[in-house]
Design goal:
CATH architecture of the largest domain: 3-Layer(aba) Sandwich
Order of helices and strands: HHHEEEEHEEEHEHEEEHHHHHHHEHHEH
Radius of gyration: 23 Å
Strand content: 15-25%
Number of helices: 16
Structural class: alpha/beta
Number of domains: 2
Bound molecules: alpha-D-glucopyranose
CATH class of the largest domain: Alpha Beta
CATH topology of the largest domain: Hexokinase, domain 1
């Protein structure tokens, strides 16, 4: 196993799934006790996903996407966003945009200039206090309204005596049912949020009530998912974009569907070829556990989450969960007497104590001494692991991160396969996509394996860094919505 564990390390593109034999770089592995080595081997087996398995997951994914459009007992919601088609480039106007992400509330003032790709933006971020994610609806919306009001005042955007309110586009990155673009009934919280009194309710009147109470002169004109914002903002700059996706705390994608392919809204009687953006919410893929190669650690993460049984694909892939998966693996190895023997592991026992940033730091550290990894462990765990343990930490980190990247590729491949997209760009946003070492090349490699492109034309569908979805994307969507309503 040791030889296998190190192949490819030298060029920094190592993946536990790479089959080409490359030079082992670390002799330290020979010091790994054989019982630990056997345990790591078993982990390698359960966390490795072959090309064939990626393919069968993708096939099932396509079926689930189609089922979601019928609305009949599907796992994947395939939410209709009422965003009709891509921007033309002539959109104009001034908009306030709000983005309630996992860690920050971002407020922007966006001016669209009616020249494609040209816009001005002012922005500010307020960190979301932790307690807010599991508090009450009043606390949450009160905080959002306060930050918005402060931003408008600080930037002289409030004009006393002016009756007209500023149009506001609200990026609310959770699954919502929309009867139209300016409403959104929260289906369920995801990404660890658990705020009372919002599920099953329209978020628009709740937030507008808070704006009214705090005299914030805005009017919500659109509720937008982050993936839809990403799709629209990216396509505004790059006409090759056909899919918008987020790989961050959560994972999801949006794309344009034709009206005739969405049976669940047939009663709207629109022309067959009308294009409507679908927010897939495919983090919920395989909630009925038919195809994903789940491990005991995935079951544990799910059971300990705020919503067991929900978002099962997301919990195997996204940034919020991969660090926790790794922590659970460390703990199991410790309890079996194989890792961190005789150490005080109080800090490792702390829930959510490891995140994807830790994993990225580990992976960026290619030195033989692994000093950077040792330092990071000391900071987080309070002790410096042995050299062989550092090696195991690095291996397991790669294993879990590589599985995440490979599974992520299945969602993108499924949308492309379902839509018959032979070539296109996929606009991807999110901190994990941008910052995680090797993620992009691993996802690209997996896409290539799934799509089976010929050697001479290896990358027909490319993941590209997305443009600002929750700023300019949300503003464009507001402009499209206002134009349509006129
Ligand atoms: C979760 C949310 C979804 C969002 C994604 C990325 O999956 O349910 O709406 O797009 O995270 O932020």
């Amino acid at each position: 196993m040791f030889e296998k564990m190190h192949k490819g390390e030298a060029d920094g593109t190592y993946s536990p799934h790479t089959t080409a034999t490359k030079k082992p770089t670390l002799e330290a592995m020979s010091d790994v006790p054989s019982d630990l080595s056997a345990a790591v081997q078993e982990l390698e087996n359960i966390f490795t996903i072959s090309s064939a398995k990626l393919n069968s997951i993708t096939d099932h994914f396509v079926e689930e996407l189609e089922k979601g459009l019928t609305g009949e007992g599907a796992n994947i919601p395939m939410n209709v966003t009422w965003v009709f088609g891509f921007p033309t480039g002539n959109e104009e106007g001034e908009y306030v945009t709000l983005d309630m992400g996992g860690t920050n509330l971002r407020v922007c003032y966006v001016v669209l200039t009616n020249r494609r790709g040209e816009y001005k933006i002012l922005q500010d971020k307020c960190p979301l206090p932790d307690g807010l994610k599991s508090g009450t609806a009043e606390q949450l919306w009160g905080f959002v309204a306060d930050c918005t009001g402060k931003f408008l005042r600080e930037n002289n955007l409030v004009h006393p005596g002016k009756k007209e309110k500023l149009p506001l586009s609200f990026t609310f990155s959770f699954p919502v049912t929309q009867a139209n673009i300016r409403s959104g009934i929260l289906q369920r919280w995801t990404k660890g949020f658990d705020v009372d009194g919002v599920e099953g309710h329209d978020v628009v009147p709740q937030l507008e009530k808070a704006f009214a109470e705090k005299n914030v002169p805005v009017e919500i004109v659109a509720v937008v998912n982050d993936t839809t914002g990403t799709l629209i903002a990216s396509a505004y700059q790059d006409p090759e974009i056909k899919i918008g996706s987020i790989f961050s705390t959560g994972v999801n994608a949006a794309y344009m569907e034709r009206f005739k392919a969405i049976p669940k809204i047939r009663s709207h009687n629109l022309p067959d070829d009308t294009e409507i953006a679908i927010n897939t919410e495919y983090g919920a893929f395989d909630n009925d556990k038919k195809v994903l190669p789940r491990t005991r650690f995935d079951d544990q993460i799910d059971q300990e989450s705020a919503r067991p049984g929900q978002q099962l694909y997301e919990k195997m892939v996204a940034g919020l969960y991969v660090g926790e998966l790794l922590r659970c693996v460390f703990l199991e190895l410790h309890h079996r007497g194989l890792l961190f023997r005789g150490r005080d592991i109080t800090a490792v026992q702390e829930k959510s104590g490891l995140d994807s940033a830790f994993m990225s730091t580990v992976e960026q550290n290619n030195t033989k001494s692994m000093a950077g990894i040792a330092e990071e462990c000391k900071r987080l765990f309070g002790f410096e692991p042995e050299l062989y343990e550092l090696e195991v930490i690095r291996f397991l980190t790669k294993l879990i991160a590589t599985r995440a990247a490979r599974l992520y590729a299945c969602g993108i491949a499924a949308v492309a396969r379902k839509q018959g997209l032979e070539r296109c760009h996929v606009g991807v946003d999110g901190s994990v996509f941008h910052c995680y070492a090797h993620f992009q090349e691993r996802a690209a490699q997996a896409l290539k394996e799934i799509m089976d492109w010929p050697e001479e034309d290896p990358q027909r569908i490319t993941l590209v860094s997305a443009q600002d979805g929750s700023g300019v994307g949300a503003a464009l969507i507001a402009a499209l919505a206002l134009r349509r309503s006129q």
